[in-house]
Amino acid sequence: MDPVTLGILRSGFRAFCTESGALLDRIAYSPTISEGKDRTVTLHTPDARMISHGELDMCPHLGSSEESLKAVMHDVKQFRKGDVYVFNDPHRGGTHVNDVKFFRPIFIDDELFAFVMTLAHWSDMGGPYPGSFNPRATESYAEGLALPPLAIFKEEKPVKEVFDLIQNNVRAFPDRYGEIYGQYQGGLLVENRLKEYVEKYGKKTVQTSFEETMNYSERLFRAGLKELPDGEYEFEDYGDKDIGHAQQPKIKVHCKLTKKADNVTLDFTESDPAPVAAWGFSRVGLLSAVYASTMHYFPELTPLNNGVIRRLNILSKPGSCVDVKDPAPISGYCSGAYEKVLGSAMGSWAKAFATVKPERVNAFAENLLNIVTGGIHPKKKRQYVSYIWVEGGLGARSYKDGPSYLQGFYIGKARNQPIEVHERWYPMLYTDVEIVQDSCGDGKYRGGFGLQRNFIVTADTTVSEHGDREEVTPYGLAGGLNGGPAKLILNKGKAGETNLGVFVAGQKVKAGDHLTFYSNGGGGYGDPLEREASLVLEDVIDGYVSAEKARHTYGVVIRVLDEETLKYEVDHAETSKLRASLRRQQRYKTGYGEGEMHPWGKAVTVAKKSPR
Predict the structure, then answer these.
(1) Please, which pLDDT band fits residue 602 given cuts at 50, 70 and 90?
(2) Does 610 score more than 50 pLDDT?
(3) Distances (CA, A) of 540 to 13, 547, 550
(4) pLDDT recorded at residue 606
(5) 317-345 confidence digits (pLDDT tens)
(6) What angle do the packed helices 3-27 and 176-201 form, to 10 degrees?
(7) What is the mean pLDDT of residues 437-447?
(8) DSSP letter, residue 95
(9) How many CB atoms lie within 10 A of CB 321?
(10) Mean local confidence (pLDDT), 131-148
């Protein structure tokens, strides 16, 4: 195929998926979509293979879209023009019930030509608690409404029975109209843009470009694999605990990556059995998480499509924590199993890349915190549900500090939800949003810093949080230390202060109570004693690192000349003595917690090669 035409069409497919997502943002009512961009648009061939997706789409969504469409195609025997199907079964679709997918078949000359998926995170899909997150669920029935493929629009007209079914099972249903019609219009936009391409370039040319787009990605991926040394690379990561189990053990995710020539297998069969409580995910989620880890190390493959997917051989054991079976609970998949598969797979890729492309190696990032509040709004006198996340620190790179106040690797396209919007929509009043001092994973290059959001609830509220990494924090690499923990504190600094943890189900709080959410700091890279003293000094002046930590962890002695005007300086003589003394000591405990040296991460070392 003419490479210029292919380049135009390949870029065009992504462009109109991006345009569709932007339209959904504008139509949606919920700040989760309009501000946070928790949505995705994908384009597929008639046999479900993904061709492209938008610029700001979420890895868990787009990575599960092929298998979700296959489930719809299994159930729907005949597709018709103008029909749109809704689907959110978490076991067949790989995410959770909040991720509601609309599939629209696109016809050209009465022939099924393509599909478009528009997905949005709906703030509530029923269940015992507002927001549908239920960390203590032991069955998926306690996590909200799971829809099999149903026609929600027929011949472009809404199907009342399906609307009624949803309305009778979810909270704050009027707010969902924005998502419903945003997803509907987003799919219609993709159909219209694709028809414009067919009219301009011809049906056969566009069909050929579908195949060549995927073939191009496959060629790039195979070429990239050939640059890596053959071998087996293993890494292990853990979830904090199975809170449904009497002993509340940690949950292991083990990845063995085997690379030979341009073939690669990622084997997760040594991972732990499925937990009792909601933490694991189905095999569809596993596939999606592996795609995300791979794309992180091969950014030139963007956008993800079937050309990459078909080159990955992924193994799992049915009934394990990365391949749970219905009716196992699954609402916490993204902060639980998804994030740990990503961590273990990225750790394995890091070992493979360490000697040939060290600039792509980095320590791990903050864990997603799913935070939900809900109740009756005191002014509007109607139900509300808020869905909030907290940005945090990313892992240090092998040549540079990790950035702060960003989303983790797999939801990096999500955006900050402004506090002004939250205060307008929900009964909450923010007091401050600020850095968590000393939360970075320390190293020659430190991780990014965690963030804390503080607000007062101005009405009686139910709070749930589904998170992780309060105990097993983001890992460091090559002698770098693990990052700081995630937390949820009720009434910090007051009588009755309570650490609610990161697995909170339906906690009742009263008007006037104060909530503080802490996100993780990212893991560090390299020995902290090798960090330039001037960089430590800069972090102390900025208030990011305490003088105490500078001394005890980095071995840097800082003299205060004038605290009021922030005049500090490094005492180089004392620093040299202190660092020499610290090097003779067994300074860091090996472990998975804050400030410890990850037992798998410490073995990752890279070639001394500049990324520039």
Answers:
(1) very high
(2) no
(3) 47, 6, 8
(4) 85
(5) 999 999 999 999 999 999 999 999 999 99
(6) 160
(7) 98
(8) S
(9) 27
(10) 97
- Say what the pLDDT of residue 612 is: 46
Strand pairing partners for 503?
Answer: 466
Q: How far apart are CA 515 and CA 452, in angstroms?
A: 10
Confidence of residue 415 (pLDDT cuts 50, 70, 90): confident
Lookup: tokens for 161: 């029975």
Q: Which residue shows structure tokens 């993204």? A: 334
**What is the reported pTM?**
0.96
CA 263-93-122 angle, 5° bins? 130
How far is it, in rounded angstroms, from Cα 149 to Cα 72?
A: 5
Spatial neighbors of 299 by CB under 8 A, at least 6 apart, are: none
- Mean pLDDT, the chain, rounded, equals 96
User: Contacts by 256-260 with C-beta closer than 8 Å and gap 24+?
Assistant: 256/232, 256/348, 257/232, 257/233, 257/345, 257/348, 257/349, 257/351, 257/352, 258/231, 258/232, 258/233, 259/225, 259/228, 259/229, 259/230, 259/231, 259/233, 259/352, 260/230
Q: Find the DSSP H helices in 361-426.
A: 419-425
Q: How far apart are alpha carbons 534 and 536 in whole angstroms?
A: 5
Lay out the sheet containing 503-509: strands in order across.
Answer: 383-388, 370-376, 461-466, 503-509
Nearest to 406 by CA among 448, 438, 443: 448
Q: Given this model, what pLDDT does residue 410 score?
A: 73
Q: Residue 200: how many CA atoms within 13 Å on its side-chain side?
A: 10
| pLDDT at residue 414, rounded to an integer | 82
